[in-house]
Recover the amino acids of this structure.
């Protein structure tokens, strides 16, 4: 594990070799973003000379990173071959961790998800060894399956349910009374004992933001925030196209923002934290109190159904939850002025309901033009956590146009 050097963003000098490498990454990104594109169109959108485009495309074809496909319009004039990323030339193991479960899958370079493994009944806080061993087993199963079918796995990406220090790779869980208790070992270093693949670990909210940036609601959006509601609440913050981490990797820990100074006591020792009202366990608990005859804790989708059917008590609870979450989002909008705020798919069918409520709340509580320029939306991605974790690896290829990526979990925040 190394440390990430701090760089001065005002300077960008590079050698001729570096310039060629940058151009290659630039062309690969354009093909990846546009899905299908001709050489002439590449020259137009990148501004590179057609001869440069030809040289780089020939290199990418030779390296099997892109493929030629049929003409976009074969009926007019001479057919023009289109270029697209060779998504199945390589795969990534994407892993999403919560405190209670692990899910993992094989994901190709285009984000397609397959071979999903789900392991429940875990306890990361109290049974770290057991949880990490089960995580390792899930990765091993996917690697063995990929090898048996000839699929080339080039890296492992993991979304972790807590801060990840970008300088050291240290993983943390936020515990009671506000104390940050690290795991008894560096998770990345421990997994590196078993796997030779490049390994990237990042906070799960940052991984969700990457999923939305590359596959979801925020494609081509430069400034947005992804709200991750689970057992706790976090935010993945993207500014000018890059995830913002803060110096210690703990930016976006909004779950303990106080939304009611006289509210219920939180496990952190404060009162009225957002997590007490808008985390998934808190949502279910609050709705359960108005459904005394319902034998089981209501699911999020059942809550959404009752809301749409006009259940007055459920509407009252969900609207109150929306106001609390909306208060934090309004503060985020006032501070960062994002173009979009995305509610994660973990809220299931309740997400679009809460998003619409908050959009209305913003119109009443934000001055123009803030409320006019910020959209509150819900994620459409079924596998956002897995795709975002995979993007921790894939974005290394996306930016370089090369399979030669380094293995260092401490560099999980490298762009």
């Amino acid at each position: 594990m190394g440390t990430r050097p701090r760089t001065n963003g005002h300077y960008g000098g590079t050698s001729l070799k570096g310039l060629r490498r940058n151009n290659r990454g630039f062309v690969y990104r354009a093909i990846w973003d546009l899905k299908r594109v001709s050489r002439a169109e590449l020259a137009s959108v990148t501004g590179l000379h057609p001869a440069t485009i030809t040289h780089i495309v020939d290199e990418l074809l030779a390296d099997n990173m892109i493929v030629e496909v049929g003409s976009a319009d074969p009926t007019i004039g001479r057919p023009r071959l289109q270029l697209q990323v060779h998504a199945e030339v390589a795969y990534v193991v994407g892993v999403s961790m919560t405190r209670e479960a692990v899910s993992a899958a094989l994901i190709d370079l285009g984000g397609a998800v397959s071979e999903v493994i789900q392991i429940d009944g875990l306890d990361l806080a109290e049974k770290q060894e057991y949880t990490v061993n089960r995580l390792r087993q899930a990765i091993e199963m996917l690697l063995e399956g990929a090898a048996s079918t000839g699929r080339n796995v080039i890296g492992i990406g993991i979304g972790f349910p807590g801060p990840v220090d970008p300088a050291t790779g240290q993983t943390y869980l936020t515990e009671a009374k506000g104390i940050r208790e690290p795991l008894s070992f560096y998770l990345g270093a421990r997994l590196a004992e078993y796997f030779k693949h490049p390994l990237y670990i990042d906070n799960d909210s940052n991984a969700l933001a990457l999923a939305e940036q590359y596959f979801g609601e925020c494609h081509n959006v430069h400034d947005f925030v992804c709200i991750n509601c689970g057992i706790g609440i976090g935010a993945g913050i993207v500014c000018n196209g890059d995830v913002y981490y803060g110096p210690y990797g703990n930016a976006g820990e909004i779950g303990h923002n106080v939304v009611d100074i006289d509210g219920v006591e939180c496990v952190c020792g404060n009162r009225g934290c957002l997590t007490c009202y808008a985390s998934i366990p808190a949502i279910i608990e609050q709705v359960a109190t108005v459904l005394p005859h319902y034998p089981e804790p209501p699911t999020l989708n059942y809550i959404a159904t009752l809301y749409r059917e006009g259940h007055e008590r459920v509407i009252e609870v969900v609207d109150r939850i929306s106001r609390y979450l909306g208060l934090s989002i309004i503060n985020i909008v006032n501070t960062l002025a994002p173009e979009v705020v995305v509610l994660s798919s973990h809220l299931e069918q309740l997400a679009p309901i809460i998003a619409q409520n908050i959009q209305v709340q913003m119109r009443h509580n934000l001055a123009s033009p803030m409320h006019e320029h910020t959209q509150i939306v819900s994620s459409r991605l079924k596998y956002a956590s897995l795709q975002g974790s995979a993007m921790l690896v894939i974005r290394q290829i996306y930016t370089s146009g090369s399979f030669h990526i380094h293995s260092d979990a401490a560099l999980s925040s490298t762009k």
